[in-house]
Specification:
The chain has 109 residues and is an all-alpha fold. It contains three helices and no strands. Helix 2 packs antiparallel against helix 3.
């Protein structure tokens, strides 16, 4: 009968409203933290893809500029590719800061 008493005590502790709230808050915090990590990872992937596409556009525009011995319209393509990278970097920074703020402000207990 001693074992049943121990099980009853464990069940009572696990089902105590304070324990349930604390565990629930911890699980909610972990879920939000995981979501923020995924958001930052997605922003990283976006930035990487923007860099690849922009680098390709710059390379092609530069090759055409050299081959055709003219600057127009390739200088505009190169400038736009640079703006695309800057925009992606800003988005990455904004998402990282917002994810951090959300997680910092989310109650963990």
């Amino acid at each position: 009968m001693g074992n049943l008493g121990d099980v009853s005590k464990i069940n009572a502790e696990l089902l105590d409203p304070k324990t349930v709230r604390t565990q629930g808050a911890g699980k909610a915090y972990q879920s939000v933290a995981q979501s923020m990590a995924i958001a930052v990872q997605d922003a990283t992937n976006y930035l990487e893809n923007a860099l690849i596409v922009s680098s390709s556009a710059i390379a092609v525009a530069t090759a055409k500029m050299v081959a055709e011995k003219r600057v127009e319209p390739y200088n505009k393509i190169i400038a736009q590719a640079g703006k695309t990278v800057n925009m992606a970097a800003k988005n990455f920074s904004d998402i990282g800061k917002k994810a951090s703020d959300i997680l910092k402000d989310f109650p963990s207990s």
